[in-house]
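Lab manual, section 2.4: Encoding a predicted structure.

Procedure: take the sequence of the chain (352 residues), apply the prediction step described in section 2.3, and record the output as C-alpha cells. A sample record is shown.
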Amino acid sequence: VGIDGDYAGSGAHGRDSAAGAAYIFERSAGGAWEQKAKILAEDANMGDKLGWNVAISGDYVLVGAPESSETGAAYIFERDGAGDWGQKAKLVPDDSSAGDEFGYSVAISGDYAVIASVSNNSDAGAAYIFERSDAGNWEQTAKLIADDWSNEDKFGISVAISGDFVVVGAYYNDDAGTSSGSAYIFKRDGGTWSQTAKLVATDAAAGDHFGRAVAISGDYAVVGAHLQGGGSGKAYLFERKENDGSWAEVYQITTDDSDTADQFGMTVSISGNYIVIGTSKNSNKGAAYFFYKNSDNVCNQLYKLTASDAQDVDRFANSVAISGDYVICGAYLVDVVDSGDNAGAVYVFGPN
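Recorded output:
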C-alpha cells in the first residue's frame, strides 16, 4: 500500500493469473474513499506480479512487477488533468538479467524513484535511481550498492526516499552474526548519489533481520527488525546529526503488549513526528501501532490499530503507510464476501 494526501494505492499481485494489478482510491471532500482506477501494465503477462509493491507521490504511482520478463520491471502511472490514470513509463535497469527481481521494493518522492533488484548479483542486491527529466521522461541516473556488499545480503529488500536521502535495507547482512541485518543511507549531492552511513542496531544479534523494513522522513529513519528478541520484534529510530551529517540510533521502539511471535517491525512508515509499525502476526490477526515522537526522540505509543472485522491469518498490517492524518494497512489474506477467500482488503484509519 501507499498513500499521499487524498490518494491511496494498493497492489493485487495475484490478480488475473498473477499478471497483477493496482488500484487507486481517492478521498472525497466528505471523507469517503472511492476507487478511481484499476491500473494494468500495457504489456501484462501471467506471472508478472504487478502490484507486489506500490508507492505514490503527487500525480505519480510507482508499481513493482518483480517477475516481469524474468528480470522484473516497474511501472510509472500518471494522473492527468482530467483525473485519469495512465501508464507513463516502464522502467528496467541498464544491466538487468534473469532472476534479478527488479521491482521487489519501490519508493517514490517527487521526481525521483527508487527500485530494488533484491536478487541482483547472486542475491547481494542493488537499488536503482530513476529521475524524471524536464521533458517528463524517467531515466536511470544511478545504481546503488553497499560499499561492503556480499553475496546473499538481499540489499534492497526494502527501500525508502525522502528529499536527498535514500535508505536501503539488507536484512541478510552478517555484521553481528548470521542475518543480523543492516541498512544503508545514500545522499544525493549535485546529482551524484553516494553512501554516507551504514546503520546497525546497538543490540544487534544473529537472526534479527534488521532492515526488513525501512522508512525515512526528513532527518529521521526507522528500521524494523521483526525477528529481534526471538521473534517479538523491534524497530529502531535513527537521527541525522546536523553538525556532521552522521546518523545515530536514538530510540528503540517496542509495544505495550509484545509477544514472542508478533514479528513487530515487519512493516514501518514515518511521516514527521508520527510512526506506524506493523505486525501481521499479533494474536494471529495482525495489528499496527501508532507512535508519536516527541522533542526528546522518545516514541510514545498512542494507539493500537486493528481491523474491526479481524479474523485469524488475515495478515493485517503486512503493509502500512502514513500520510498526514491518515494511516492505511493492507491485509492481503482477508476473505471478502462475493469475492472469495484471500481476496484481500485495505483499511483506512483517520481522526474522528
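Check your result against the sample. DSSP finds two helices and 27 strands in the chain.
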